[in-house]
Write a structure and sequence with these properties.
The complex is a heterodimer of chains A (756) and B (97). Helices cover 46% and strands 20% of the residues of chain A. By secondary structure, chain A is an alpha+beta fold. In chain A, helix 3 runs parallel beside helix 5. Chain A is flat, with a radius of gyration of 33 Å. Chain B has one domain: 2-Layer Sandwich (Transcription Regulator spoIIAA). The chains are: A alpha+beta (756), B alpha/beta (97).
Chain lengths: 756, 97
């Protein structure tokens, strides 16, 4: 495993820690005062800092350090996590996320912003925030740093884990060096995680003059001991000019696996303290023998030494890394094997982010897949056996084998899809940040409620979901919610609520974004649409149709264009990206009570359930999700309308009849509706259309193959697939065909283009 | 005396005494229980706290059994590490004959 891989794991860990951090802070924001929550938040920042230090990411380290110092004040109850404090902390979490991204992908961060936050955090840590002014001085025990005479470094908050403290404390050299008592009691986990007490003590000894006493009292006799448990504990007295932080940072990566007490001694007490502990052995400063180890003739040792060092360095990451590595490498292995469908989808994911994307998968899922592949091999053997023995056994055993094979294939497919499935949580969490930032800019008070974060959906879908969601959240806060004064006047809570929900519904994921704002001002929308020549001034539109106008290109109801939204590129772009994912978006709005946007997306882009139909001798696939019902038209139900249009009456309502063969130019003349089948489909905007096809062949799951990647874009066709007989069948782009039937030409966007 | 000397066992320690070795070392010591023991630590290049724990527990048990437990030869690294972590093995060092 080389350094880059370790780094990659670190960044993955970072993402998790950041998520943890954010959800912890939000819980605190909601009034949760559980010490464990505070600890979790602290741990998250601490781990990021620890890992970052190991990779020399100084920006990240110094910011994390300041953040951590402030969090420590919260942890030790010196700082009350009030709303104001948490606001700063949440912003800091955002900057920390930015810094992490910069460290991974390059680029730059807003220096001014992070500098400003560092100042705010420091101010909080020093107790300058209104609620916590006095306690710092009142708790010298909890803040030994304050009591230490010379090394006030930690109060600056700028001390990274990097071990260069040379700049500090130079002027104190003449005085007696400050002394620290360190009680270090490792837990067994410390060793099992690959840390080594001796190495920690060696690092400690490098800080200065050190005396040590090893407490062996708890060591049992040989036959009662567990060779891998921790029995030794140490009491160390060390004189160093490098400050308590330097002492603590030695144990940085082991902190959670040991009991550690560092006490600063008044210089006068040193002699006394050392005298008290007679059994202490002075440790010679010359540790050359240990340092020389890497030069030992055995190359292996050298390597191991390095590995040990690295292990120690990434102890934070190391804790989980065994399992993670296995899972990650297994998933990678599987990922590379799992065939064209997923590979195509992965191509897509690669477009989304330049770095080769990896996913972390539950070992269970990989195991299930491996198990199924084993079954497949057995089934294949049985099947070929049956074919060989065809004469004696006849066709029935082959058919049985085939049926089993079919079932297996379906299960394997499901398993592979499950591997790509990821919870939507990370995307939702990013939205929390968006809401905060926009609320800040607009001066509104907004609360984001999320539900169903653990709903799983294909990675590709997740990657592409963030952008439209951000747009919509912006709109919801900027346009949807009213200013606090207005809300109070309307008898609502001054704090607006934006709710983001994800759930599974009949094989699709449904994401709902609702706000409790003013709702869509239909009069204004209508007027705007008339002004922009989108509709005729006397057009008679239903409420639903008016609401859907906001999805038109070049439409914005904001009176003035703000930085956030209102450039009129908002909702139509959203709609297009959702459609590109094979999804649909709907809006429902109640004046005075807010709006609800509902997006329904396929769980995966690689496979879809389709209805296989024949049109003018060609085989086409219509996505099943688009089809509402199928019917055999009666001659009596067909009505002509104008020169070329025809309508079909279904249960006393009229619905335009769309001749698919005509629109795709499969034939020059209009088909006779009575000879064909009508597929009632739901098109964009909620309207229904009846697609005319010649015959239905059946219903099948098809693997989506990109036409763009293999051939070129074809208007009205979303993608292609390969049928059982090896022929290529085209997948119909229902929305494109429907809009073409309205007299517009087939436009270029397609609903499955993203499928790869 | 002669008989006692004949029963004396010796144990050579592996060069790297880390987490993985702790169990093995424990097993070896358990097998040698009841005999006077001279440990050869001259090949040791790296030793972790866990193995020191095992060795010290061994010394303790040998003491309880009234058997001798000595380090016949020690490497520099071994001495330095035990010194570093404050474990005194001076009283266990073999006296020059």
């Amino acid at each position: 495993m080389d350094m880059n891989e370790i780094k990659e794991i670190f960044f993955q860990e970072c993402e998790e820690q950041l998520a943890e951090l954010e959800s912890g802070l939000l819980r605190l924001n909601d009034g949760d005062r559980d010490p464990e929550t505070v600890n979790a938040v602290f741990r998250a920042v601490h781990s990021i800092k620890g890992g970052a230090g190991a990779f020399g990411l100084d920006d990240l380290v110094s910011f994390a350090h300041v953040f951590e110092t402030t969090l420590d004040c919260v942890r030790s109850n010196k700082l009350e996590p009030s709303q104001d404090v948490l606001k700063v902390m949440l912003k800091s979490a955002d900057v920390l996320a930015d810094l992490t991204n910069v460290a991974r992908d390059g680029g730059s961060v807003d220096q001014a912003r992070s500098a400003q936050l560092i100042r705010e955090l420091e101010a909080l840590a020093k107790g300058e925030a209104p609620p916590a002014a006095a306690p710092v001085a009142a708790a010298p025990k909890a803040a030994p740093v304050a009591a230490a005479p010379a090394p006030v470094v930690s109060d600056d908050g700028f001390v990274p884990v990097a071990f260069s403290f040379d700049d500090f404390g130079d002027d104190d050299l003449s005085a007696d060096l400050p002394s620290y008592d360190v009680v270090f009691k490792p837990k067994s986990e410390l060793y099992t995680k690959g840390n080594e007490a001796t190495l920690l003590l060696r690092d400690l000894s490098r800080l200065g003059e050190m005396s040590i006493h090893c407490n062996m009292d708890s060591l049992p006799s040989l036959d009662q001991m567990d060779p891998e448990a921790a029995y030794f504990s140490w009491k160390v007295s060390i004189k160093t000019d490098k400050g308590e932080d330097a002492v603590r940072s030695v144990f940085e990566f082991a902190e959670w696996d040991c009991d550690l007490e560092v006490t600063a001694l008044e210089t006068g007490d040193v002699a006394e303290a050392v005298a008290d502990d007679l059994p202490m052995q002075p440790v010679p400063f010359d540790l050359s023998a240990l340092d020389d180890e890497p030069d030992a003739p055995l190359g292996v040792v050298e390597e191991e030494e390095q590995i040990a060092a690295v292990q120690q360095a990434v102890a934070a990451a190391e804790a989980a890394s065994n399992v993670v590595q296995m899972a990650a490498s297994a998933s990678r292995a599987v990922a590379s094997d799992k065939g064209a469908a997923a590979a195509a989808a992965q191509n897509n994911a690669q477009q989304a982010s330049a770095a080769a994307p990896t996913i972390r998968v539950d070992l269970d899922r990989v195991d299930r897949l491996i198990n199924l592949v084993g079954e497949l091999v057995i089934n294949q053997a049985m099947l070929s056996q049956s074919v060989i023995e065809n004469d004696s056994n006849g066709v029935s055993s082959i058919n049985m084998g085939l049926e089993e094979l079919q079932q297996l294939t379906r299960e394997i497919q499901d398993s592979v899809m499950a591997i790509r499935a990821q919870p939507v949580k990370p995307v939702f969490q990013r939205m929390a940040r968006t809401v905060r930032e926009i609320a800040d800019i607009t001066g509104k008070s907004v609360r984001l409620v999320t539900e169903g974060e653990n709903t799983e959906v294909d990675k590709t879908v997740i990657d592409k979901l963030a952008e439209p969601l951000t747009h919509m959240i912006r709109n919801a806060v900027d346009h949807g919610l009213e200013m606090p004064e207005k809300r109070i006047a309307a008898g609502k809570n001054a704090e607006g609520t934006v709710k983001l929900t994800a759930k599974h519904r009949s094989g699709r994921i449904v994401i709902e974004l609702s706000d409790d704002g003013a709702g869509i001002n239909r009069e204004k929308v209508r007027q705007k649409a008339i002004d922009n020549d989108l509709i005729a001034a006397d057009a008679n539109l239903s409420d639903e149709e008016i609401d859907n106008l906001i999805f038109h290109a070049g439409f914005s109801t904001a009176d003035k264009v703000s930085d956030l939204s209102g450039r009129g590129v908002g909702m139509d772009v959203v709609k297009r990206s959702i459609q590109a994912l094979g999804g649909r978006i709907n809006i429902s709005s109640k004046p005075g009570h807010g709006s609800v946007f509902t997006m329904s997306l396929p769980l995966t882009l690689a496979v879809l359930d389709g209805m296989v139909v024949t049109v003018a001798g060609q085989t086409l696939v219509v996505p099943l999700t688009a089809i509402v019902e199928t019917l055999q038209p009666d001659a009596a139900a067909i009505h002509s309308f104008g020169a070329t249009q025809r309508l079909i009456s279904i249960r006393n309502s009229f619905c335009p009849l769309v001749d698919v063969g005509r629109i795709l130019n499969f034939r020059a003349t209009q088909a006779n509706p009575v000879e064909g089948v009508a597929l009632l489909v739901e098109s964009e905007g909620g309207g229904q259309r009846a697609l005319m096809v010649d015959a239905i062949q059946g219903q099948r799951q098809v693997v989506i193959k990109s036409l763009e990647a293999n051939y070129t874009h074809v208007p009205g066709i979303a993608a292609a697939t390969i049928l059982g007989d090896g022929r290529v069948a085209l997948i119909l782009d229902v929305d494109a065909v429907v809009s073409a039937s309205r007299g517009q030409s087939l436009h270029t966007e397609t609903s499955l283009a993203a499928a790869g | 005396m002669a008989a006692k000397k004949a029963a004396r066992k010796s144990l050579s320690l592996a060069p790297v005494l880390d987490l993985n070795e702790a169990n093995a070392l424990h097993g070896k010591l358990m097998a040698l229980r009841g005999n006077p023991l001279a440990i050869d630590a001259s090949a040791v290049e790296r030793v972790g706290a866990l193995c020191v724990q095992v060795l010290m527990a061994g010394a303790k048990s040998w003491e309880e059994d009234n058997q001798s437990f000595t380090f016949a030869k020690v490497s520099d690294a071994f001495t330095k590490t035990t010194q570093l972590i404050g474990v005194n093995i001076d009283h266990l060092m073999a006296k020059e004959i």
